[in-house]
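Handoff note, outgoing to incoming analyst
You'll be picking up this chain. Sequence as last confirmed:
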Amino acid sequence: MIGIFLCDDDNGVRLRIQAALERKIFIEGWDMAVACSADGPRSLLKAIEGKEPEHGIYFLDVDLKDENWDGFLLGKEIRRLDPHAVLVYITGYGDLAYKTFQYHLEAFDYIVKDQDLLEGAVCRCLEDVWMRLAEEKRVREEIFTLRAGDVLRHIPVKDILFFESASVSHHVLLHTANSWVDFLGSLNELEKQLGERFIRVHRSYLAAADKIDEVDLKRGVLRIRGRECPVSRAGKALIRQKRGGVL
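Most recent structure output, in case you need it:
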């Protein structure tokens, strides 16, 4: 589920935005929810600090009336904690795009606080965000991009056999038929990112569902294009479910 985070010290405006977003999400049936509605930057940061990156959507007031924070400084800190965050600025002023260039923020949109048009503008913005995220997800499912050292690699998802937890903490090995790549990553994050085409067959292995050739129940392994991976009891159940009850 995609989390939406609001920060505006004007309670009336913030509650209007929250109500409009929740109504739009309910009508469209999107897999989203307002995860935090904060009246100040500290409350919002507390909600996301110490957690894995949310890939969240953030609606931020520019003028937060805080002596240490404005919306742009808050956006910069959010970028540090949630690098793929979508930032939308709510402002009582006109064009503030130049400010985001100063902070290297790449804001998705700027919405002017207009008493009559605010809710409609917020909902249209959320629809645009949803469409962009859906397109990015489609592209990610076709091409898997990783950074190995200083090199950025783009590997077709159809070529990936399985992922394996590496002996080095927070590293993952990606296996294809002819090669393997060591990169910084997490099987938990990969499982979320790649969806149903990959099965968590073991706590240390994530395998391409359509490439599993055989499950050896006696030895507790599966064969995938000539390779062997361990398979746990939970992994067997997931494979059986995927294959309509047959291993």
